[in-house]
User: Fold this.
Amino acid sequence: MLLELVKDVPAYIRELYTHNPLFISDYFNINIEEIHCGGATISMDIDPELHFNHRGIIHGGVLEALADSTLGVTGASVGAVVSTLDFSMNFISNVKEACRISATAKVRHHGRTTMVIEVEVHGPQGKLLATILTTMFINARFEEIPAKW
Assistant:
């Protein structure tokens, strides 16, 4: 029996992530803004009471959580179930006020067993906050999601 391919890939991936605790928790409340084949943009609203460290700036782990969530959605956009093998993040700038930040990812290499994905995290007025380069292990496939659409 042949598995039917998903027609509306972004809607299908959004539904996959509706039960992910990072996306629905009051702490992170991550929002999928855009999904296209080989990339995604995800955002979150920064609350100083929840997301800042003792120095009054956004905690790096919050930026990492946003970036890592973007990696999973980006992998799914090409039908891959992925896990992080290597994660390298450069912190460029920071934010000191409540705002919305976003992470945009794109696949740079899609092999049989690994994938390389780049991510940029931006703050208000497009201010670059961080760059990320990752190698992802492809654990399995979402057989219903085409690799190209």
The chain has four helices and six strands.
